[in-house]
From TrEMBL:
InterPro entries: Formyl_transf_N, Formyl_transf_N_sf, GART, GART_AS
The name this protein goes by in its record: Phosphoribosylglycinamide formyltransferase
Record-level Gene Ontology MF annotations: phosphoribosylglycinamide formyltransferase activity
Organism, scientific name: Halomonas llamarensis
UniProt-annotated site: Raises pKa of active site His, residues: D165
C-alpha cells in the first residue's frame, strides 16, 4: 500500500462536523445507479447535504424515477431539442441556477460540457469516472483496460475542468483485474467502488474539507497528490465485503 492509500479504518473514522444542509444538483443521462448511492447516503446522513434536483439530458432516464421516488425534483431537459451544444448548456445553466446549488455532481452525465458551462461552475463540480485517471479518459474504459492486459483498474472522483476527465483527482478506488474478468464483471466491480467513494468525496466538499485550488485539489488545507487519495484493492474489497471473491 502506498502512502496515499486509504485504509478501511480511516474511512470508517471520518466524522465531519455538522453544518447547515448544503444544496446539491445531480446531472445524469441513464439509470442513475450512482444517484441511488447518493440518495441512500443522504438518507443515512452521510452525504453532508441535500440533493435538491436531478436533471437528465434524456427524457426516459431511469434515474429520474429514482429521484421522484425519493421526493427529489426531477427535471428532463432533452439535449436533442436544442440546436447546438452551446444552446443546451445555456438552458442547463438556467435550470441549475434556479436551484441555487453549492455543488453540481455529474453521475453518469454523458455530455461534453462547453467552456462557458465549466467556467460558470468551476470548483463546484465533481465527476465520477470509471478508470484510475489519468489512464483511459473518455469512453469504453473497461474494454481498453482488458485489451491492454492491465493488472489494476478502478474509478476516480475528480473536479471538472475544461480538459475532458482531466481535472484534479480527489479519490480513487482500485481493483485487481483477474484473467477471468470480462467487460461486464469489471463494470460491476467498478460500479461498486464508485458507489463507495463518490459519497465520501461529496461529503468532504459539502463539509468544507475539499476545495479546488485552481492548480489542484486540497483536503483539509493539504494539497492532494495527482492521483488523489487511493483506496487499495484490499481495502475497497474489505469495505464492500468482496474479500472472499478473490483467491
Amino acid at each position: 500500500m502506498s502512502s496515499t492509500d486509504y485504509t478501511s479504518d480511516t474511512l470508517k473514522e471520518i466524522e465531519p462536523e455538522a453544518t447547515d444542509a448544503r444544496r446539491v444538483v445531480v446531472l445524469i443521462s441513464g439509470s442513475g445507479s450512482n444517484l441511488q448511492a447518493l440518495i441512500e447516503a443522504q438518507s443515512h446522513d452521510r452525504l453532508g447535504g441535500e440533493i435538491v434536483a436531478v436533471i437528465a439530458n434524456e427524457a426516459d432516464a431511469y434515474g429520474l424515477k429514482r429521484a421522484r421516488d425519493a421526493g427529489i425534483d426531477a427535471v428532463a431537459l432533452p439535449h436533442r431539442e436544442y440546436d447546438s451544444r452551446e444552446a443546451y448548456d445555456g438552458a442547463l445553466i438556467k435550470v441549475i441556477e434556479r436551484h441555487e446549488p453549492d455543488l453540481i455532481v455529474l453521475a453518469g452525465f454523458m455530455r461534453i460540457l462547453t467552456p462557458r458551462f465549466v467556467q460558470r461552475f468551476l470548483g463546484r463540480m465533481l465527476n465520477i469516472h470509471p478508470s484510475l485517471l489519468p489512464a483511459y479518459r473518455g469512453l469504453n474504459t473497461h474494454a481498453q483496460a482488458l485489451a491492454d492486459g492491465v493488472s489494476e483498474h478502478g474509478c476516480s472522483v475528480h473536479f471538472v475542468t475544461e480538459e475532458l476527465d482531466g481535472g484534479p483527482v480527489v479519490i480513487q478506488a482500485a481493483l485487481k483485474v483477474s484473467t477471468n474478468d470480462t467487460i461486464e464483471t469489471l463494470k460491476e466491480k467498478v460500479h461498486a467502488r464508485e458507489h463507495l467513494i463518490f459519497p465520501i468525496a461529496i461529503g468532504w466538499f459539502l463539509h468544507g474539507r475539499l476545495q479546488y485550488s485552481g492548480t489542484g485539489a486540497t483536503l483539509d488545507g493539504t494539497a492532494l497528490p495527482p492521483q488523489g487519495l487511493r483506496l487499495s484493492h484490499e481495502d475497497a474489497a474489505e469495505e464492500l465485503d468482496e474479500l472472499n471473491d478473490y483467491t
